[in-house]
Amino acid sequence: MSDQVTIVDVAELAGVSPATVSHALNGKRPVGNMTREKVFKAIETLGYVPSWNASRMKGGKSGIIGCLAADITETFVNQIVRGIEHGLTGGEFSLFFVSGIEFGNDLKKAYDFLKSHKVEGILFCHHLPIWKEFNLNSQNSTIPIVSVNMVTPNMISVIPDNYTGGYQAAEHLYGCGMRNPAMICGPYDRLSVQDRLKGFSQRVQELKLTLPNDKYFGEYDYSHGFEATTRLMQEHPATDGIFCANDYIAAGAIASLQKAGYQVPQQVRVVGFDNRDFSEFWNVPITTFELPLQEMGMLGVSILKQIINTGVYHAEKRILQSKILPRESSRG
User: Fold this and answer.
1) Phi-psi region of 180 (alpha: psi -120 to 50; beta: other; left: phi over 0)
2) Domains of the chain as residue ranges with CATH
């Protein structure tokens, strides 16, 4: 019923003009307490839902912020979108979300779909460089874009500090007794992997320790963690501390070590990344890093709203810190 109810219906039931209903809702002009009570009682009775977008459309604005991700089922996207929703609570903007899955993974089509609905700004939310899927120059775009969880050229990007995470992983493992470090990386072409490796390698070098030449690049999954750790321990049996690029790799690494007879963490310490749901409940709870995903979503939408309201856009990186969560896999 709420979709059919209009402001005129509310005004008739309350015995006031539509303008008075509007004033009672937006507070731009004073409305007496008794009149306000009648208006809100009528709204409750009819189930009326105010359309903030309608008033904005009169000024040539939609009041809609678009959000584009390759896949809504991805855990990171869920958390980022939750932060975006918190950032929009009680405000004048509504969120219009589209997933690449809806468009047969044609992200250009999804982007054009958002544009056709007159969104005032767009948030790219993914850990993959989805901007590479189509030719997009944000500097020449009529719609401001903020990239969340991925550095995007010529755009404002809100990202976690993966370099510092890697650096802190080495520091933590060293403090737990590691003297022969190794890292098992994820996909070579992921910027997050490269940044975590750089941070880890930097602190290892400062500690005057040595990493194996092989950084064991591979998929972000359990199988890669298991197989790479098996090979690592055959090639470097003295390894006593392993930094894994994510928790799936760490889970596989722990399983491989246990199968080979190593005790975790007494003989080999393991640290993961991303704080996946299972990491706390693994047979050896995994030390990991929690990404500030909701905070990234809130900051991204805050920046986008400011751009929409001011018209000022300067490409930059906004970097938020991850938090280490020490657990049994590294310190016992």
Assistant:
1) beta
2) 7-50 (1.10.260.40), 61-159+293-320 (3.40.50.2300), 162-291+325-331 (3.40.50.2300)
How wide is the angle at C-alpha 297 spanned by C-alphas 55 and 117, nearest 5°? 40
The amino acid at residue 193 is: V
For residue 139, pLDDT over 50 is answered with: no
Higher pLDDT, 176 or 91: 176
Please give the torsion angle defined by the CA atoms of residues 220, 190, 183 and 253, in that order, rounded to the nearest 10 degrees.
0
Average pLDDT across the chain, whole number: 88
Place 1 in a pLDDT band, splitting at 50, 70 and 90.
Answer: very low
Percent of the chain with pLDDT over 70: 89
Q: Using an 8 Å Cβ cutoff, are 182 and 238 in contact?
A: no
- DSSP assignment of 90-146 equals TSS-EEEEEEGGGGTT-HHHHHHHHHHTT-SEEEEE-SS-GGGGS---GGG-SS-EE
Which of 108-112, 187-191, 235-239, 290-294 bottoms out in mean pLDDT, i.e. has the lowest? 108-112
Distance (Å) of CA 303 to CA 96, 98, 157: 17, 20, 10
* Number of other residues whose CB lies within 10 A of the CB of residue 7: 18
Residues 6+ apart with CB under 8 A from 309: none
Peptide bond into 285 cis (omega under 30): no
Please indicate, yes or no, whether the overall pTM of this predicted structure exceeds 0.70.
yes
CA-closest candidate to residue 107, choices 115, 149, 81:
115
